[in-house]
Amino acid sequence: MKRLCILLFLIFSLFTYSFDVVITDYYDDTFGDYIPESLETINYSNACFYVVSDLGNVTNGESLTLKVTYPDGSESEFNESVDFDGEGIFYKRVDLKGVGNYKVELTFNNETEEKDFTVNPDKSEDPFEPNNFEGNVFYLERGTILSSLISQEDIDYYSLKIDRKTDVKISLDSDIDLSLEVFDEGNLIAQSDSDFEGDESLSLSLERGIYTVKVYSPIKETGDYSLTVKGNFPIYLPLTDFDRSFEKNIVVSNLSDKEGDVEIHFYDADGQEVSNTVEHFKPYETKSFDGSDYYYLKAYSDNLEVNASAYGINGDKNEAIGYEAKILALNNTIVSHIATQTYLYETFSYFSFNDNGTFLNYGSDVLSNSILENSSFLVNFNQFYNDNILTPWGIAESDAEFCGIEMFRLIGGDFFQATALTLTPQVARVFFLPHIDVRYFWWTGISIVNPNNMQANVKLIALDSDGNSVGEADISIEPEGKSVGIVTDYFENDLPETAAAMKIVSDLPVQGLYLFGTKRGDDITEDVFGGLNSSAIYSKKLYFALMPSGDNEWTGIGIFNPNNEGIEVNLKGFDSNGNLIEEKTINLTPLQKYVSLGKDIFDSEGVYRMIAVSDKPICGFYLFGDRDHTYLYGLEAMR
Q1: Cis before residue 283, ω within 30 degrees of 0?
Q2: Residue 326: which residues within 8 A CB-CB, separation 6 or more?
Q3: Whole-prediction pTM value?
Q4: Nearest CA-CA partner of 53 in 40, 35, 79
Q5: Contacts of 42 (CB under 8 A, 6+ apart)
Q6: How far is CA 497 from the centre of its chain?
Q7: C-alpha torsion angle, residues 311, 317, 318, 320 (rounded to 10)
């Protein structure tokens, strides 16, 4: 009897089917019968994974089932059939859906084999990964982004929002062969594939809507590229005095080298249009408007690229704010820094709706998702402050499109200092802070928000003005958390006074801003502070609208090269009527920053605005202040 059981076991073993399951990051027919070792981890930037198995001797058409369990618990089941007779390798490409733990189950001939593996956040320096799927994308704005195809299977998707019918040019610049495609609600409407290394471009007339832009390599090359969007997009500018006696000065600029008309609409706090005007602009001309009676501005042109900013100084000239218009009006934004955790600061946010709507969610436990009904309104976060609950950041959402700004105000008895920043929902994995200053009595503080449900690992790289690294620091930001502090406190060794800019690299998309100011003593009435948003969108042409140079006023100009190669930048200075006065050329090494007082850039007098033009993307900023140290504010260069 015992011998019979052994014999039956041996016979059963002969007919028991077994196979292995391998997980790999790439596989195709050129591998032949070679099967790589199974991977335990894959980077999310790979976009997909491959299930590979040697099924043994099979018959063409035999069926098998592949089941994939994703990190969020969802499942996909694929019913496949082999397409060969005899010995052969089965493989299947499966798209990734998020980072975390995956489980694969392959069933064939009533046998099931399982394999677990983990998908990690990206370690590359592609700023916009993960963007391998249409639903998880970065909104393109007018300007240029620097990105990469970092694996053979990487496909990059971006969103392009059009608010009114306009002509748009989308351009790719790369040393590898790329294809560019544009989709409208999933339908391909345009594509460019020249079959050559270098530029791809599309010129389109687009109606109002949200389009998808796809970048990929048809021959599966990897490498860097720049993606540029040009068009006559409308701009949105919220206007408020933050319950203070600010002037509201509006600057509208023509960024084009041609003349044309600009239509400007002004709205009240209820979203009702109260005034409009059509202004004719000469090339590179800037015009100023009094915004005292208005709460919201919208401007557009059919043939010009325009932009705008708002600035104001209070009657006592001890408080000033300045901020830029937005090209994007969306249904959500990140309020990345709420400084109610100290009695010295107040934080305000101000929102204006593109259309009338209800403000649904502020993303804050303190506000308890308050419903605030109005077309323009101001929120003072200090009213929600208590010792037990801190609100370091928030998410604003609405059923209507809106734009917003936030202001930080330093309080000292009867003395105030303030700065304002434009709000944005955009996040990135690589971005720059083009201006930090730790010399003498200056300080710079940074705020980095991690809106993800996983820990973000972030590297801070301090750069001197020549682009050399002068210090590195690694930080971890908890899920939906924030890191905030003075830059010198992040580095174990003292940050040298030569530190002039910072590069931020994260394995998950994050958002950053930075504030800077003076600490001259215990009396804060002697100090000033300002702020700027981080830079992840660049341009080959920057516009600096105002360069005041009075007896007591100064303007500081900064131009930063975010590229890994040297560039040439042509600077052109214009008078108040848009006439060219003088031009000069500067050269910037990789990651180098050029800084100057506005009055010292050109030898000629009477220069009131400047453009900077390069064949590679650049970013820039300008600071305004007075020599009595009573106010300071910063603006990003217009693009």
Answers
A1: no
A2: 235, 236, 237, 403, 422, 424
A3: 0.80
A4: 35
A5: 23, 25, 49, 96, 117, 118, 119, 120
A6: 28
A7: 0
Pairwise CA distance, residues 245 & 319, whole Å: 10
The topology under which CATH files domain 17-120 is Immunoglobulin-like (2.60.40)
DSSP-based three-state secondary structure for 632: strand
Beta bridge partners of 89: 54
Pick the CATH number of 138-231 from 3.40.50.2000, 3.90.320.10, 2.60.120.380, 2.40.10.220: 2.60.120.380
Query: What is the helix, strand, coil percentage profile of the chain, to 5?
Result: 5, 55, 40
Are 610 and 542 within 8 A, CB to CB?
Answer: no
With CA atoms as reference, report the closest residue to 352 among 411, 259, 271.
271
Give the whole-angstrom CA distance, residue 470 versus residue 315.
42
Contact of 90 with 64, CB cutoff 8 Å:
yes
Render pLDDT for 544-576 as a digit per residue (tens, 0 to 9): 876 656 677 888 899 999 998 999 999 999 887
Low-confidence ranges of the chain (pLDDT < 50): 2, 4-16, 356-373, 413
Would you state the pLDDT for residue 382?
A: 63
So what's the pLDDT on residue 150? 65
Each domain of the chain, given as residue ranges in start order, spans 17-120, 138-231, 539-639
Burial of 270-298, coded b for 16+ CB within 10 Å and e otherwise, reads: ebeeeeeeebebebbbbbebebeebbbbb
pLDDT at site 11:
43
- Whether 369 contacts 324, CB under 8 Å: no
The one-character DSSP state at 136 is: S
What's the fold here for domain 539-639? Answer: Hypothetical Protein Tm1070; Chain: A (2.60.290)
Tokens of 439: 């010399």
Burial degree of 264 (CB within 10 A; 0-12, 13-18, 19+): buried
pLDDT at position 357, please? Answer: 43
**Looking at this protein, which amino acid is placed at residue 263?**
E
Is the separation of the CB atoms in 250 and 288 below 8 Å?
yes
The predicted structure's pLDDT at residue 562: 92
